Amino acid sequence: MGTQPEPSSTPRTALNRERVVRAAVALADEAGLEALSMRKLGQRLGVEAMSLYNHVANKDDLLDGMIDVVFSEIDLPASDAGWRTAMRQRAASVREALARHPWATGLMELRTTHGPTSLRHHEAVLDCLREAGFSIENATHAYWLLDSYIYGFAIQEASLPFGTPEELVEMAEIVLPRVPAETYPRLNEAAAAALAAGYDYTHEFEFGLDLILDGLERLLDSARESGATVH
Amino acid sequence: MGTQPEPSSTPRTALNRERVVRAAVALADEAGLEALSMRKLGQRLGVEAMSLYNHVANKDDLLDGMIDVVFSEIDLPASDAGWRTAMRQRAASVREALARHPWATGLMELRTTHGPTSLRHHEAVLDCLREAGFSIENATHAYWLLDSYIYGFAIQEASLPFGTPEELVEMAEIVLPRVPAETYPRLNEAAAAALAAGYDYTHEFEFGLDLILDGLERLLDSARESGATVH
DNA sequence: CGCTGTATGCTTACGACGTAAGTATACCGG
DNA sequence: CCGGTATACTTACGTCGTAAGCATACAGCG
Fold it and tell me: What b/e sequence results for B75-101 when a residue is b if at least 16 CB atoms lie within 10 Å of its CB, and e otherwise?
């Protein structure tokens, strides 16, 4: 077709690191992290496993690349909308990305090194908080608090085996008989209420997030009261 | 020696599920989860790998047992000290257990089934909150919020590669040159402050926890105001 | 006492894994 | 045209979880 490439004997489009990493992300999304092997990934790309090592140092390097993809899908906090809405948007963006790639939280625990995408992200969040008037210490507190909550929520959401209300009902039918109301009355009343109301993760997430943001706002106000932050 | 056991040809103490699981926990603590293989575990117990399958259905079953051990190390909330101190103690207990076994958070994501120890734990926490006057919905909110924070914090603590102030200084020397102050000013000022103050995870953890508990207390008060909860 | 499960251990073997080492091919700049 | 570089393939090693089969030792029972 074109004039330069497609030299007749390499039918497949050229392999490169990005294509390898993206295919790995797609494979992990579809089949889970434990199904991601170099051989299966090669198969998916029409290539032998060892050929992947021309584009990726080893499997850990591949996993690092996958983490970077996830980070790149997270919106940086908007700088023009006030810290609170910026933090809300970022939190939602993180949760969406982690829900899209349920394997990501598990990976981020193992791979401790942070790529430039991750660093840029951290920098932007800290900057947003500092610009809003948080002291260095309080910005650090706020960051730990928000990230702990967001990641912890994403993990629990990912490990609970239902996403839709139908799956919730389905799972309740299987699990609840093993949780008799006599020994676990509190679990049962909570489960009954959740089933009746049609449980919604997003609503649950935002409830906790707003409670935390309220606390941070009070922290900011009381710090302002007792002496302005250097800005 | 004794009259009944020790029939001269089985020198080692009898193997059973508990000994296998405990050895697995110890091995994972020392060498990490990725070093836990059935062969190495057998070696540690003076036994071939396949012999372990007489006491454990398969590796997943072993992992489930390990999770149960971790849960059994977590103190149930005290029922006689008020919900706030009970939640504080439980939170500290969870964090300690997860810090003692850094592999636990990673496992709990994968193994979604909950054993009786886990169920009992959930029940006790919910009961504590309900007794304190939280509505069913608010107790559920509080549980999600607290657990998300605790687990998220534990994960970040485990994945950050330092535990002592010395290790922090050591790591800073390695990492900071790769995080230039011109492009990452906020990260650098935060790192500098943490280095100067001697960063303390426990302090950081309790700061966020107290902020959350403050928020929950307000929630409880405002619910009390607008009409008592059925109790 | 011997007979007979049953519990517990060991050996061997299979297929999948990550990846080191060596080889073949196809392109590009001289 | 020629040599180097990039990319792909083949083969092979050690490790993994575990299925299948075999050995032994003990308990209950006649």
Answer: ebbeeeeebeebbbebbbbbbebbeeb
Decide if A95 contacts A208 (C-beta within 8 A): no
Contact A148 B144 (CB under 8 A): no
The per-residue pLDDT string of chain B (231 residues; one tens digit each, 9 = 90 and over) reads 333 333 333 445 678 999 999 999 999 999 999 999 999 999 999 999 999 999 999 999 999 999 999 999 999 999 888 999 999 999 999 999 999 999 999 898 888 777 889 999 999 999 999 999 999 999 999 999 999 999 999 999 988 877 777 888 888 888 889 899 999 999 999 999 998 988 889 999 999 999 999 999 999 999 988 876 555
Q: Can you tell me the distance from the alpha carbon of A19 to that of A229, in angstroms, rounded to the nearest whole number?
A: 47
Closest residue, CA to C1' of C7: B54
Q: In this predicted model, which residue has the larger pLDDT, B25 or A161?
A: B25
Which positions of chain D lie under 7 Å from any protein Cβ? Answer: 6-11, 15-21, 24-27
Q: Does A156 touch chain B (CB under 8 A)?
A: yes
Please name the residues between 107 and 126 in chain A that touch chain B, using a CB distance below 8 Å.
108-110, 112, 119, 122-123, 126
What structural domains does chain B harbor? 1-56 (1.10.10.60)
Distance B52 CA to D28 C1' (A): 27
Q: Closest CA to C27 C1' — which residue?
A: A7
**Which residues on chain B are in Cβ contact (under 8 Å) with A137?**
193, 197
Residue B106: which of A106, A197, A204 has the nearest Cβ?
A: A106
- Dump the DSSP string for A38-89: HHHHHHHTTS-GGGGGGT-SSHHHHHHHHHHHHHHTSPPPPSSS-HHHHHHH
Identity of the residue in A109, A139, A207 whose CB atom sits nearest the CB atom of B105: A109
Give the amino acid at A206: E
Closest CA to B163 of B102, B206, B97, B109: B102
Banded model confidence at residue A144, pLDDT cuts 50, 70, 90 = very high
Coil/strand/helix, residue A187? helix
